[in-house]
Write a structure and sequence with these properties.
This protein is of the alpha/beta class and 725 residues long. A hairpin with a 2-residue loop joins strand 15 and strand 16 (481-489). Helix 1 packs parallel to helix 3 and helix 11 (414-424) packs parallel to helix 12.
């Protein structure tokens, strides 16, 4: 296959050799971590969001897409606080608030530094929105108008909208001993109001809370009759703010502010102490909305009296109070992107090509799999091929069994509907549903119940672990024998995210590989010891040790003066044992390149420690999600795909898979497209520096980007290039 562009023509290795027999396992000597302090994980997560924020600042990115990136950063920060902040609050002298996470090694100084970094990022977000994006949108005829900017006719329309759509759903709550401060749900928008005068009973209770209904849209488009020349929008918060006085007749609104509290949202379920995990998780989902408060957002105009009142109610330190100059919750501005109806301000639509390894649509995918392994590269190639594979299996009368892992499929999934159809057609269906997939628990519980109701065999993986492996296995009767057809993936079975995330999938009939898959499914159902696997590497049993041994082999090759090369692509690198192994191999002389999208705790290019290790993070239009591991030691070269990032949780607390790619052409294609291309990216690649900071691409607006090159490659694909090998 030809190189992406001339600049990407430099090969990763002299040639892709066929794999040779593996040597005996290598025991890696320990490396004292005390000699090499690792980078802070939470600051590394915030640094990743800085890189996403950079795309919101780029003038070469379409305007509405810049707004979308701004919203993505806010969404990421929400999750960061929901998952990571509670452990730091335990460092405070007074201890954690009720319901907080325990066992934190954080210190007050670390909490201060982390909150300061988050405060700075949030301040720059709002500055970009107010000073750059909002004015630019206005120049394009897209404006969010405040109460003071509205004409008389527009104000009358807002008043009518408030009376018709909003007022019936609002319940202002005046606080007194009989009406204590209400339970405020995680990330819900609320108003706090300070009132003058007396209530109907002659009392001077001055504080009231108004909850903004989540059922209402946060961004509302004005009709053309009141905005004939522009596309004008109002925020729901602005509509309520303009009519707060209507909610308190006979009282004067003296002070008010929007506010929003973020809560710790990890579900805490003692799996060893519950009889039915699904039932326990359903109950936990209700409690998640009211976990420990970890962040408070208020309007910049919020008075000290009101902010102090709220801070005390949520038992938060001052560092966790964020004053924002604009809408509280930028995430909801993403609705404007969809309402604007301005395709010229968005990325050009990308559909993806039909996979080049497959014959034209309509031909049997199972028949093609019998001829050779097939590689799918999403979103450059359409996820439709995976759906077509499952659909063919469902409607094939000779298919007897279908087994699939379900991690994140979404609430509306064609694949899940196909599994239900398979049950109705009398096939044996086994679904390994991960009920604890963070923030997808409810959708997965609903799918589990729907499949069970039809008679599918549904299992929930292994107690204490998450099943993060992505595999789909079909068993078909062919003559007097059975043949297995498998799909392994680095990403989820979610058609929507498959258009947004980069992932690799393998369709295979390899007997050893599919037998291994069947063995893993049996292991997950029976919870017996896993069988001996010939091709797959399984976490939490072998995967980490196998990766350590592969790294050690490369390090020993370097010591012997042989070819020694490691290139790894993943989403996060935080596992200390694997970091130690990489540091040691680098000190032995191995050349190591790490393409890590998110958090990376390995300090790169430190003299005498890691000068042979480079780390880069690529951000682009699509979310980088592929996990590709290349190890070159002398004449032996190994290439693996995996569902696992190199994090402690993935290696020791999840069911994960990695699998080898043996086909020479597929190996070279993966190396070209997923490794070489990203090592030469000049548009979206940030480089980790010895001090722990990331330096931006040298040419951020006009450099060559791996994603753009791949889009060009696949958009120009011709039928001639799709011929069978």
């Amino acid at each position: 296959m030809s190189s992406l562009t001339p600049v990407l023509a430099e090969p990763l290795v002299p040639a892709v050799a066929a794999p040779v027999a593996e040597s005996a396992p290598v025991v890696l000597p320990s490396l004292e971590l005390a000699r090499t302090p690792l980078l802070d994980r939470d600051h590394s997560i915030l640094a990743f969001n800085e890189r996403v924020f950079d795309w919101a600042q780029r003038s070469d990115v379409p305007l509405l897409e810049r707004l979308r990136y701004l919203c993505i950063v806010s969404s990421n920060l929400d999750e960061f606080f929901e998952v990571r902040a509670a452990a730091h609050l335990t460092a405070l002298p007074e201890g954690p608030a009720e319901g907080g996470a325990q066992g934190s090694d954080s210190t007050p100084a670390q909490l201060q530094a982390l909150m300061a970094a988050a405060q700075d990022l949030v301040a720059r977000q709002y500055r970009l929105y107010n000073e750059v994006l909002a004015p630019a949108l206005a120049r394009e005829g897209l404006r969010i108008v405040s109460h003071g900017q509205r004409t008389g006719e527009q104000r009358r329309w807002v008043q009518e909208y408030f009376a018709r759509e909003v007022r019936p759903l609002l319940i202002p709550v005046g606080l007194d001993p009989a009406h204590p401060f209400p339970m405020v749900a995680n990330k819900s928008l609320n108003f706090i109001v300070r009132l003058k005068g007396q209530d109907a009973f002659g009392r001077a209770n001055e504080i009231a809370i108004v909850r903004v209904p989540r059922a209402l849209p946060r961004v509302i488009r004005m009709p053309a009759r009141v905005a004939p020349k522009e596309s004008l929008f109002v925020l729901l918060s602005s509509v309520i703010r303009a009519h707060l006085a209507d909610l308190f007749p006979g009282r004067e609104v003296a002070e008010f502010s929007q506010f929003r509290v973020t809560r710790h949202s990890e579900l805490a379920v003692d799996e060893d102490d519950v009889r039915n995990l699904r039932t326990a998780l359903r109950q936990g989902l209700q409690q998640r909305h009211y976990g420990q408060a970890v962040r408070l957002e208020v309007s910049a105009s919020c008075t000290r009296f009101l902010s102090d009142f709220l801070q005390a109610q949520f038992a938060l330190p001052a560092q966790a109070v964020f004053r924002v100059h604009g809408p509280v919750n930028l995430v909801r501005l993403g609705q404007l992107v969809d309402l604007a109806e301005r395709p010229g301000l968005l990325f050009a639509p990308w559909l993806g090509a039909w996979p080049q390894d497959l014959a034209p649509q309509g031909q049997s995918i199972l028949a093609q799999m019998r001829q050779r392994d097939l590689l799918l590269h999403h979103p450059f190639e359409r996820f439709d091929a995976v759906i077509a594979f499952l659909r063919e299996a469902v409607y094939d009368p000779d298919v007897l069994v279908i087994k699939q892992t379900i991690y994140r499929t979404g609430a509306d999934s064609e694949l899940m509907e196909l599994l239900r159809e398979a049950v109705r057609r009398g096939k044996e269906v086994m679904a390994v549903v991960e009920l604890k997939a963070r923030f997808d628990e409810e959708a997965n519980i609903n799918w589990a119940e729907a499949l069970e109701a039809l008679g599918a065999q549904v299992v929930y993986g292994v107690v204490g672990l998450k099943t993060h492996a992505k595999m789909l296995l079909v068993t078909r009767r062919e003559g007097r024998s059975l043949r297995r057809y498998g799909h392994l993936s680095t990403g989820n079975y979610n058609p929507r995210t498959a258009r947004l995330y980069t992932d690799l999938g393998l369709l295979t009939c390899n007997e050893e590989l599919t037998a291994d898959m069947d063995g893993v499914f049996s292991h997950l159902a029976s919870q017996n010891r896993p069988p001996k696997l010939h091709q797959l590497m399984l976490a939490p049993f072998y995967l980490q040790q196998c990766m350590v041994e592969k790294i050690a082999q490369v390090g020993q090759a370097a010591q012997a003066g042989q070819y020694a090369r490691i290139v790894l692509k993943m989403n996060a690198l935080t596992d200390e044992r694997l970091i130690c192994a990489l540091l040691q191999a680098g000190q032995q002389g191995a050349r190591i390149d790490l393409i890590v999208r998110g958090a990376c705790m390995l300090p790169a290019q430190l003299p005498g420690v890691s000068e042979n290790i480079r780390v880069r993070s690529v951000i682009g239009r699509f979310l980088e999600h592929t996990r590709v591991f290349y190890f070159g030691a002398g004449e032996q070269q190994d290439l693996y795909l995996s569902s696992a990032d190199w994090m402690n949780r993935n290696m020791l607390r999840r069911v994960e898979l990695a699998w080898p790619i043996h086909d020479a052409q597929l190996r070279q294609r993966i190396i070209d497209e997923c490794l070489v291309a990203y090592l030469h990216d000049e548009r979206g690649a940030w480089s980790l520096q010895p001090g722990g900071q990331y330096s931006p691409p040298p040419a951020p607006t006009d450099g060559k980007g791996a994603q753009k090159a791949l889009m060009q490659r696949y958009s120009s694909a011709t039928p001639a290039r799709k011929k069978q090998r």
